[in-house]
Design a protein that fits this description.
The structure holds two protein chains of two kinds. Chain A is of the alpha/beta class. Chain A contains three helices and four strands, in the order βαβββαα.
C-alpha cells in the first residue's frame, strides 16, 4: 500500500513559522473537503527520516533545499502574503500532490 | 492593583485571557480567539510542567558536579523555558499593543522600514520587560523597557534586511529579533578573516558535516548525551546517569513542543494583528518582520550548528568564571548561525569561528544575569532552581536595556 499523503512544513525551529503554515494549509484542506492528506510541521534539522518518502510535498519556510530531493514549494507567502497569495500557494501544493500521486 | 490581580491568576490563565482579548481587538473572530487563548494557556502550562520537571532532576546534578570539581557552573540552563516569563508577566498585553502603536508611528514617519508583524517574537522583549519588572517592582518601567528593546529591533532589522533577503532568496523580509545582532557582529569579523592568509581559504562541506554527525546532530540525542555526561561528572551511578540523560532529552524534545502549542494559540491572533499592520501600509515600500527561523534554510547553517553543539558545551566548561553549562540553550545556536551565515557567505568554517567568538560574552552575560533570571522565573512559578539561558539571559541588548532601567 502506498504511504499516506503528507504535506511537510519545514522551518528553522519547527515551532512557530512552520506551525503557522500548517494551520493555514489545514484550514484550506478542511474547506476543500480533503481529509486524506496529513499535514505535519518539523524542524529543518530533524527531517532526515522523511527523506525518500512517497506522496510527500515539502513546504519550505526557509530556502528550498534541493538536496532533499522531494517536490517542494517556498512557503513564505503563508507568513507575509495576502489572503489571495496564501490561497494560490495552497492550490499549488494540492496540484503538486495530485501530480505525484498519479505517477 | 490590577497588576497584582493579574499576577495572582498565574501565567497560563493570564495568557489565555490576554490572547482572547487581543483576538477580539484585532478581529480574529470570537471562536478563534477563545481557542487561541486556551491553546496559549495550555501550551504555557505545559512549558511550566516540562521546565519544573526537568530542572528538578537536572539542578541537583549540576550542583553536585559543581561541588565535586569546585567549579562555578551552578546555573541550570533552561533555554526557551525563559519564554515562560514572557507570557506570564503582568505587562504582556501592554507591550503587544505598545509595540504595534510605536511601530506604526515610526513606519508612517519613515524612520524605520520594518513592520513589527512577527507578534510571536515579541516574547524576547517581554522577557526583558519581565526582568526589569522583577528588579524594579514596576510594571510600567518593564513595559517601557520591553517596547524600547523591541523598537531597537526594527532598526537592527532595517540594517540587516538587504543581506538576509539576498542570501536567503526572500524579498521583502526582515528579522527584528536580537539574534540579528550576531549578523552585525559577523560583518567586521568576516572582513578580518578575509585579511588573514591561509585562514581565509578554509571552508567545509555542509553535506559531509551533517552526514558525519548523523543522529548526534539531532537535539534530542545530543540532550541525552549531555545529560549522561553531567550525570557522570556529578558522580552518579549508571542508572542515575542514564535517567538524567533521558530527562535532559525530555527537555530538548518536549520544551519546543510545548512552545509550539503556545504558538498554535498565538498564531491566529498574531496573524490578525499582522493583517491589521499590513493594511496600514499597503502602498509603502516596507519590510515584513519574520521569525528568525526563516534564516535557517541555507545548508551551511545547520551544518555549522551541529558542530557548535559540542563546542559550546566544551567552551562552557573551559571558560573561567562561567556559570552556565549550555543544555537547553543549544537550541538557539542555529539561529545565531542563521544570522551570521549571510555575512560569511555560507562558509562553515567562518560561521563556526564567528559564532564561537560571539558566544564568549554571551556566557558571561548569562552568568551575570543568573540572579535576575532565577528571581523572575521563581516569582512567576517557573521553579526556584538557580537558572539562566542564552536566550534571553545572555542577550546583549537585553542586558544593556535591563542595566539602564535598573537605575530607576
Amino acid at each position: 500500500m502506498a504511504e499516506r499523503k503528507l504535506i511537510l512544513c519545514v522551518c528553522g525551529a519547527g515551532i512557530n513559522t512552520s506551525m503557522n503554515a500548517k494551520m493555514t494549509i489545514m484550514e484550506h484542506l478542511r474547506d476543500a473537503g480533503m481529509e486524506d492528506v496529513e499535514v505535519k510541521h518539523a524542524m529543518i534539522g530533524d527531517i532526515t527520516p522523511y527523506r525518500g518518502r512517497e506522496n510527500m510535498v515539502v513546504v519550505w519556510m526557509t530556502q528550498i533545499d534541493a538536496n532533499f530531493e522531494a517536490p517542494g514549494v517556498q512557503g513564505m507567502a503563508y507568513l507575509i502574503g495576502t489572503k489571495k497569495k496564501k490561497r494560490a500557494l495552497s492550490d499549488e501544493i494540492m496540484q503538486k500532490m495530485k501530480d505525484i500521486c498519479q505517477e | 492593583m490590577i497588576a497584582s490581580i493579574l499576577g495572582s491568576l498565574g501565567g497560563p490563565v493570564l495568557v489565555a485571557i490576554v490572547m482572547f482579548l487581543l483576538g477580539l481587538i484585532f478581529q480574529a473572530g470570537f471562536s478563534k480567539s477563545i481557542r487561541g487563548g486556551l491553546y496559549a494557556g495550555i501550551g504555557l502550562a505545559g512549558l511550566f510542567v516540562v521546565v519544573n520537571a526537568v530542572t528538578a532532576s537536572l539542578t541537583p546534578a549540576i550542583q553536585a558536579f559543581a561541588a565535586r570539581f569546585d567549579t562555578t557552573l551552578t546555573l541550570t540552563d533552561v533555554g526557551w523555558g525563559s519564554a515562560g516569563i514572557a507570557f506570564s508577566w503582568p505587562g504582556l498585553a501592554f507591550v503587544i499593543v505598545g509595540v504595534i502603536v510605536v511601530n506604526v508611528i515610526l513606519v508612517t514617519l519613515g524612520v524605520v522600514k520594518t513592520m513589527w508583524t512577527d507578534i510571536w517574537s515579541y516574547w524576547h522583549g517581554q522577557v526583558v520587560g519581565g526582568f526589569v519588572w522583577y528588579t524594579t517592582g514596576n510594571v510600567t518601567l518593564g513595559v517601557v523597557a520591553a517596547i524600547l528593546y523591541l523598537t531597537l529591533g526594527s532598526f537592527i532589522a532595517d540594517y540587516t534586511a538587504k543581506r538576509y533577503q539576498e542570501f536567503n532568496g526572500m524579498p521583502g523580509i526582515a528579522v527584528p529579533c536580537a539574534v540579528s545582532l550576531a549578523g552585525i557582529f559577523a560583518q567586521p569579523v568576516n572582513a578580518l578573516i578575509e585579511k588573514i592568509p591561509g585562514i581565509r581559504n578554509i571552508n567545509g562541506s555542509p553535506e559531509n558535516i551533517r552526514k558525519r554527525m548523523g543522529i548526534f546532530g539531532e537535539l534530542g540525542v545530543m540532550g541525552v548525551v549531555i545529560g549522561a555526561f553531567i550525570g557522570l561528572l556529578a558522580g552518579y551511578g549508571y542508572a542515575a546517569v542514564l535517567n538524567l540523560g533521558v530527562q535532559v532529552g525530555v527537555m530538548m524534545v518536549f520544551l519546543p513542543k510545548t512552545v509550539s502549542v503556545l504558538c498554535e494559540g498565538v498564531i491566529p491572533i498574531a496573524n490578525s494583528a499582522t493583517e491589521f499592520i499590513q493594511e496600514k501600509f499597503e502602498d509603502k515600500e516596507v519590510y515584513v518582520a519574520v521569525d528568525c527561523a526563516a534564516l535557517l534554510g541555507h545548508p551551511s547553517v545547520m551544518a555549522s550548528a551541529v558542530l557548535l553543539y559540542p563546542i559550546a558545551v566544551i567552551m562552557g566548561v573551559l571558560l573561567p568564571g562561567n556559570g552556565v553549562i549550555p543544555i537547553a540553550s543549544l537550541a538557539i545556536i542555529p539561529y545565531w548561525c542563521g544570522a551570521i551565515a549571510p555575512y560569511c557567505k555560507g562558509n562553515v568554517f567562518r560561521i563556526v569561528l564567528t559564532t564561537m567568538l560571539w558566544m564568549v560574552p554571551i556566557f558571561y552575560i548569562a552568568t551575570a544575569m543568573g540572579d535576575v533570571h532565577t528571581g523572575t522565573m521563581a516569582s512567576l512559578g517557573l521553579g526556584e532552581a538557580a537558572s539562566s539561558s542564552f536566550d534571553m539571559g545572555g542577550d546583549i541588548l537585553g542586558f544593556l536595556v535591563h542595566k539602564i532601567f535598573s537605575i530607576f
